[in-house]
Amino acid sequence: MFGSKTTHKRTPAGTRTLPAAVVRRPGLRGWRGRGQGEAVYVTAADEWRGTSVQVCGLWPFVGGSGTPIVGVPIGVHTDTGAPFGGDPISWFMHGMINNPSMFVLGLPHYGKSTLVRHIVLGLAGRGINPLILGDLKPDYVDLIRALGGQVISLGPGRGHLNVLDPGEATGAAVRLLASAEEHRAKANRATEQEAAAQLLAAAVKAEKLAEQLMADSHNRRLNMITALITIVRNAKPSAHEESLIDRALHILDERLDRVPLIGDLIEVIKDAPDELRAIALDRGDMSRYLDATDQLRQSLYSLDGSGRFSDMFSQPTDQPMDLTKPVVFDLSGISDTQRDIQAASLLACWSTGFATVQVAHTLADAGLEPRRNYFVVMDELWRALRSGEGMVDRVDSLTRLNRTEGVGQAMITHTMSDLEALPTESERMKARGFVERSGMVVCGALPSGEMEKLNKAVTLSRAEQARLISWADPGSWTDVGGSRKRVRPGLGKFLFKVGGRPGVPVALKLTSVEESLHDTNKRWHDEGEN
Questions:
Q1: Could you say which of 41, 252, 452, 529 is the most buried, measured as most Cβ atoms within 10 Å of its Cβ?
Q2: Residue 9 located in a structural domain
Q3: Residue 333: burial class (beta carbons within 10 Å; 0-12, 13-18, 19+)
Q4: Residue 343 placed within a domain
Q5: What is the CATH number of the domain that holds 373?
């Protein structure tokens, strides 16, 4: 045939064999041509992860997975089924994020609190104490009880939290000063100059820590009183009223040999000592002083058992926090209709919790206590932010030092609209900063209207946005167990985002032991149900 070439192979005897047949083979994607079955797109192989013991026989035909599994085991990748693990503290300690904090967003009843409880349980197993600073539903009480922790009830007629109580700060300062005296005594007896210098340096450090601790305690009490007055009035106290409170607290500490109460603060203001009259600019006229302090005393009376807060903040603290155990503040006794009381309680619990953690770390810095790390959960963030003018600044000041204070943190709210609903642009920017500063942002099911707002704080690709929107779909109606129940596609699914990296979509997996602890619909069950 013209143009063809046939090769012949000679045998040893010199004879020729038949021509070799030309064999056609398919390409890497099948037979090319119309109707021949060529695969235009080849689906990538699923990636799996296993230990060297489990998959050693498959080497070298194993590819590494890009799904991280550092920290608390969370679940599996929704697309590949690869296991996923992570929490803000473990990722921070491994250098994967710059801040040991997480911000959780998602529509109600899609598993936000369940995810955080799962992380709380995993971190508790790693020796990190969880602190649930305000549980309104309650979502965490059963879990903390199961961990052998401390449940502190707070609410009108259900418990008391004295906002003027310095807590462990006073006792810690006494221990620090005693330690300083001990170091100085040892320095005087030391025979070597270098050893004496080290002991004197330790004494000076302990004295400075004690001074800082008491100053921070004073500032915390001042900020807490002004925050409560802000909630009562729905407006910030004036500058001269803050100065009056500041000086009155110093006078209280000098006069009393016990923990002061709000009633004591009112009495000091009523006594009109010269220091307060000078701040009020009364010019020697008592009527001017009374006019300057009338509104302040009225606000304090509403916190002293005479207003809607009852005696929640005006009586001695019932249960001081024990930071050697997991702790939860149970606020479930406060009705959802009492939004201002809920916000005030949350703020008081957050302030008390962070202050107590600071005391624990100060004692550890001085070598008087073992070093402990904590995981603080701040749920229902939107309630506190909307409770009054200036509340964003109060929360902002509480949340900026989690890295330096050795505290991991989870902040939880429903949507970015909760933050965008604040009255001023400056407050909205500060609230967005809570999301922007978080080491990881975890998003559950969200409506399409949230995407533009969320993109201002964290970058989401179109595919990631479409995924979050699809999770918010109500799903189909199916007959499950003989009753009509709705299957929600986004239930228990979350997108973990770190900076500009692609998000990891994860389906949360719970153990059988956890399922009973994560049931937040107990009152909807029949008595005969398990």
A1: 252
A2: no
A3: middle
A4: yes
A5: 3.40.50.300
Model confidence, pTM: 0.78
Task: Give CA–CA dist 397/383, Å, rounded.
Answer: 17
Domain range enclosing 442? 67-153+327-475+486-520
Q: Is there a contact between 133 and 353 (Cβ–Cβ < 8 Å)?
A: yes
The three-class DSSP label of residue 310 is coil
pLDDT of the chain along its 530 residues, tens only? 444 444 455 555 555 555 556 667 887 778 887 777 777 776 776 766 777 676 666 655 544 456 888 999 999 999 888 899 999 999 999 999 988 999 999 998 899 989 999 999 999 999 999 999 889 888 899 999 999 999 999 988 889 999 999 988 999 999 999 999 999 999 998 888 888 999 999 999 999 999 999 999 999 999 899 989 988 888 889 998 999 999 999 999 999 989 999 999 999 999 999 999 999 999 999 999 999 999 999 999 999 987 788 889 999 999 999 888 999 999 988 888 888 888 888 888 888 888 888 898 889 988 898 988 899 998 888 877 776 666 787 677 666 655 556 789 999 999 998 888 887 888 888 888 888 888 999 999 999 999 998 998 899 999 999 999 999 987 666 655 555 555 678 999 999 999 888 899 999 999 888 877 766 566 555 554 44
Tell me which H or E stretch contains 178: helix 169-189
Q: 42 lies in a domain?
A: no
> 397 and 351 in contact (C-beta within 8 Å)?
no
Helix, strand, coil proportions of the chain in percent (round to 5)?
45, 15, 40
Neighbours of 155 (CB within 10 A): 21
Cis amide prior to 73 (ω within 30 degrees): no
